[in-house]
Amino acid sequence: MKKKIYLNMALLTIITLLLVSAVLCFVFYNLYSTSIHEEMQQRTDIFRTDDSETAISSLKNTAPEDMRVTVVAPNGTVIFDNVSNAETMGNHKDREEIQQAGKTGFGESKRYSDTLDEQTYYYAVKLHDGYILRTAKTTHSIFVVFERALPFVIVIILLTTIAGYLVASQLTKRILRPINDFNFGSKLSSPYDELVPFIRAIENQQEQIDRQLDEIESRTKAINAIVENMNEGAVLLNEGGSILSANKSALTIFGAGGNMAGKDILELFRDTLLIEKTRAALLGKRDETSIERSGRDYTVYFSPVPGNGAILFFLDTTERAKSEKLRREFSANVSHELKTPLTSILGYAEMLENGMAREEDCPAFAQKIKEEAQRLIVLVEDIMLLSELDEKAPNELFVNTDLFKILEHTSEVLALKAQEAEVTVKIVNTCASGIAIPANPSMLSELVYNLMDNAIKYNKPGGSVTVHVAEIDGQIALTVEDDGIGIPENAQDRVFERFYRAEKSRSKTTGGTGLGLAIVKHIAIIHSAEVTLYSKEGEGTNIRVLFPLNIR
User: Fold this and answer.
1) Which of 172, 192, 267, 357 lies 20 to 30 Å (CA to CA) from residue 306?
2) Which residues contact 99 (CB under 8 A, 6 or more apart)?
3) Are 458 and 485 in contact (CB under 8 A)?
4) Is the pTM of this model over 0.90?
């Protein structure tokens, strides 16, 4: 812009100088020509009152040296000329100024010589005796004037151009300084009125850009927050295989630390299968595979991003695999648990049907069939209860429930069973106030029944069961403690699984289904309660359920 302004100013200066020089030359030339014409007219008019002889006599004595004077007879013959020999000059009757003077008393004309590049002015007057007195003066043409003035004009142009360059440079800097020093960061104000529409357009665009940047920044923060805090690993690669971003989950999966942006994918993992499929994704092929890292299972999805690279998504499928495994085990256990009593019932029934049993054994066989049928009913009821618990929503039909009343009622129900097992049951309440908790009464009764039933069932003759109720840190703690056979240490992590029995032979003797503690665990989860177990083989078991007074 600066260069353009300077060039335009310099060009304007040169053109202006040329035009001014040409106009001045033309004006001065016209003034000079007019001056010569007036001078010739005045000097010629001096001889106008004289006759030809007097005029010739005067001219011979005082002929002017700066102009040519000629006397022409009425017939056009030249009788006097102060420059040339009159006798050798041709007839001037056809000359324009001679003809005009003969008719009107005076005449004038000018003739241009291409050869000499000169212009001659002629002025003629008619004397009293009819003779014509003509004066002539030769001057250079306007082109010669231009030619002679050209060196001075060139010098003036050069000097003016140099001065103009200096002045234009300063003026250009002065004009552009407000624009160059324009601050786009503060409130915009136009240094020139002509720039007001431009400034307004910039303000509108700047506001639009600011809004878009704020929106992009907000979206970027939201996306980054989601990506960084999600459990799934995500790695974004450019077309060259360099890492653009990798969230914390992805870094944790491969045990990497620090910022991996800009590093090659080989610095994150070197698994041959993953590298192969990553390269295929960069070439546009979508794929997936499964890997195992640090004891956890992952499904890896390779998604190409056309023209920009690829995205690697690591989905943790450990829990799903465990759930699938538990489902298969549950199905197998259900089949096994149902098959065992049904097989016994079928066997005893066939023996009775075929008359293979003695008459005195029939009551015993019937008793066996009844026991197996009861065991089957209990098993089906527990399975149905677990199914219902899986489908129930948290806080469903929750009311303030008196835990102590449920404990007393359950103790009464199990009194005969405790008596037969020679086990004493005691309830200890250390709460300073009431022990009403938000709960589903029927579920809470089922939880208490299973805990107390297990404590009696897996006890030893002369043993005891103590049920403690206490308030701990604003929560109600229900603790069922026995001094029975205890649970082996290697089985304590699995006793809450469905159909798991730490002591299988004892479970069959006592009629256990292996679902009691699984039911307890489910009910506790529904009530946002925490279950902890402490047991030592041969010394007893302690199970605590910690109920919050405010269900989450």
Assistant:
1) 267
2) 93, 107
3) yes
4) no
